[in-house]
Design brief:
OB fold (Dihydrolipoamide Acetyltransferase, E2P), five-stranded parallel β-sheet, single chain, five-stranded antiparallel β-sheet, 7 helices
């Protein structure tokens, strides 16, 4: 199956060279190019590519900045001349990292990884496990989280909890708790309510991550989450929770 790709790089020569190399890979169709992050964001949101070849260092916003502004991520292959970014790119779990000038064999290796992931996702989809469309993020969708110098690609099903901190939200996954500039209300609008539940004014919990439910003060409930966090469900939300979970 043909994969639709966008190349985002401020160097026209680099974009041209990459397009030339991709001619040997007919399974990849380059549908657009962008010379900076803002243009790239616009094209990704408008054209919804399967894959993005993304430069990191660009005038204005970096490639990492671009990713923080996307709601739903395509697969990402970083392309850059700066090898000191290699560790950082792999830390965020990008599909691959290509050093300029891009070598044909390294490009082929990166695209093989894409093929493997696509096959795996096709199998998952055939088993009836897939994300929800129409703007709602499914639990298998991937999001980009950046906090200071650290950044990660995270699947929503790995996030156990969102906690409101003013205009920010703290994201709990693995041992990490980074802050993102998004309100809990904005997040709630994008999350699948069958998976993520608004427990109270300050918390949204992943229902799959609940280990224990106990009665709590004033008709509420107390949820114990896999990471050890204990979250109170308000009395009003406890009624909804019981209906959802058939308690």
């Amino acid at each position: 199956m043909t994969k639709r790709a966008i190349i985002i790089d401020d160097e026209r020569l680099a974009r041209t060279e990459l397009k030339k190399l991709l001619q040997d890979h007919p399974e990849i169709e380059v549908i657009a190019e962008a010379a900076n992050a803002n243009e790239g964001i616009e094209k990704i949101e408008h054209m919804a590519p399967d894959l993005v070849f993304l430069d990191i260092q660009m005038p204005g916003k970096t490639g990492f900045d671009l990713l923080t502004e996307l709601d739903r991520l395509p697969q990402v292959i970083f392309t850059t001349a700066y090898d000191e970014y290699a560790l950082k790119a792999f830390e965020v779990n990008a599909l691959d990292y290509l050093l300029k000038p891009v070598e044909p064999k390294r490009l082929a290796d990166a695209l093989h990884k894409l093929e493997y992931i696509e096959e795996k996702e096709a199998l998952t989809s055939s088993l009836g496990v897939q994300g929800v469309n129409r703007g709602i993020l499914g639990e298998n969708d991937q999001v980009f989280v950046k906090d200071g110098e650290r950044c990660w690609f995270v699947k929503l099903n790995e996030i156990r909890l969102f906690e409101s901190v003013g205009n920010y939200a703290k994201v709990f996954f693995s041992t990490h708790k980074p802050l993102i500039l998004k309100s809990l209300n904005a997040l709630e609008e994008r999350l699948d309510e069958k998976v993520f539940f608004r427990a109270n004014r300050k918390h949204i919990v992943n229902l799959r991550m609940i280990e224990r439910v106990e009665p709590y003060f004033n008709g509420g409930l107390l949820l114990e989450i896999k990471g050890g966090e204990k979250i109170e469900v308000s009395r009003r939300q406890a009624v909804k929770f019981k209906e959802m979970m058939s308690l």
